[in-house]
Amino acid sequence: xxxxxxxxxxxxxxxxxxxxxxxxxxxxxxxxxxxxxxxxxxxxxxxxxxxxxxxxxxxxxxxxxxxxxxxxxxxxxxxxxxxxxxxxxxxxxxxxxxxxxxxxxxxxxxxxxxxxxxxxxxxxxxxxxxxxxxxxxxxxxxxxxxxxxxxxxxxxxxxxxxxxxxxxxxxxxxxxxxxxxxxxxxxxxxxxxxxxxxxxxxxxxxxxxxxxxxxxxxxxxxxxxxxxxxxxxxxxxxxxxxxxxxxxxxxxxxxxxxxxxxxxxxxxxxxxxxxxxxxxxxxxxxxxxxxxxxxxxxxxxxxxxxxxxxxxxxxxxxxxxxxxxxxxxxxxxxxxxxxxxxxxxxxxxxxxxxxxxxxxxxxxxxxxxxx
Length: 371
Fold this sequence. Notes:
about 375 residues, alpha/beta, 7-stranded parallel β-sheet, 6-stranded parallel β-sheet, 13 strands
């Protein structure tokens, strides 16, 4: 196979789409340093900054999701999709990729649709246990479909599916970091159990409110909390925690840039149930309480969580009940060594290592078969 391969990667909108996309690109570059890689994302979305920061070129499309509450607003969405189809066609013809890879998100729709019409091999990567609307649309014509969960033939042609898992950020899996380094970095007490609370880069209102409601219980325990409250809630949460006396065992951050150290320090994690987060937790064998977001399409985070809960690999607390029971459940769990060990053992079984390599293997097969 030629070494100067050309790969187009499209999608984004959230870290759950962007991190796998970048991991795939990095793996391609490691194998084929002369490979040309171009990203196509959605204008105004986070991939337009995250991808260049990772060292790759990106072109934006003016696309938007369907409005499920007000059907009349979808006329603008359809118009944007038509414009994006024209721009995607031009991008594909100008760049002439050997393969187009879609990772989900609005931009991958017009891009891979046009790639299929131009007879360019296409591969889609579905991170969740319940396929997103864009990937379900693209799956009918895609050449190969890489998934992270069993039973995905409910959404895609069975003969196209291969289970690869979800690519994760490489730095999280480094064997070189130690708990001592993590404790020092976050100024944590090595003698205390640590709960890590993460609600994504923007934050999760329910997780933040639940933690605030549990401050007194945390103060009365021998447990410390490392808390990523998110950009949207940082000012409010810092003011609220200050009003509660700035408890010394609650370490609040707008954003944690060293998630490798955060995971290393954590005895228990509280998290939303996005596919990328679950994949990271699985590979690391981290005990977790999952609080699925209700603000996602098809309630797919609950389905992601149940795939673990049904195998005794995670604890589920619903968004509705979190304010009342989340922190009490976490404090009880983190002090139960046997429960933590069981959760760790069971979630570790679900991790699929080297997922980016598996996906790139499939992509390279498609390129070879098309030469």
